[in-house]
């Protein structure tokens, strides 16, 4: 015998919020959906909200006029950083932490085939083609920058595990 009517509607869970079945979206709703989807895939990074830090000297000192009195033009461009020496780029990377200069120095180092190792917090570069390459690591001779002794060193038979490779593309 059928159940007695109670005045309540029973909606199967599969129909969810559209009890009459799927409804085609209007053109405006499709555009809104595409915009939301694009926003989801291009979400801002926490660093996008950081303010630029301008250099303020701690103890300003009057210098003779033949010394530069202002920051060189375009010194915050990638082209400027590409012209700097490797050692200068390492100095900027390790001593100007959290600045745009550190970011640009890292980008310039990556352009010179240096790779950052997140476990050792050091930059590595292949000295020669690795002897062993697998999906998880490569093994061979590498040059690395030792920031404690401030110089480049050679490491033979080093295993560079890809899980410690900082491989974000710096756009």
UniProtKB/TrEMBL annotation:
Keywords: Cytoplasm, Developmental protein, Nucleus, Phosphoprotein, Repressor, RNA-mediated gene silencing, Transcription, Transcription regulation, Translation regulation. Pfam families: NOT2_3_5_C. One of its GO terms (cellular component) is P-body. The keyword Nucleotidyltransferase does not apply. GO terms for biological process: regulation of DNA-templated transcription; regulation of stem cell population maintenance; regulation of translation; regulatory ncRNA-mediated gene silencing. It comes from the Eukaryota. It is found in: Cytoplasm, P-body; Nucleus. Transmembrane segments: none annotated. The keyword rRNA processing does not apply. Residues 40-165 form the NOT2/NOT3/NOT5 C-terminal domain. Belongs to the CNOT2/3/5 family. Component of the CCR4-NOT complex; distinct complexes seem to exist that differ in the participation of probably mutually exclusive catalytic subunits. In the complex interacts directly with CNOT2. Interacts with TIP120B and NANOS2. Interacts with EBF1. Interacts in an RNA-independent manner with BICC1 (via KH domains). PANTHER family: CCR4 NOT-RELATED. This is CCR4-NOT transcription complex subunit 3. It comes from Daphnia pulex (Water flea).
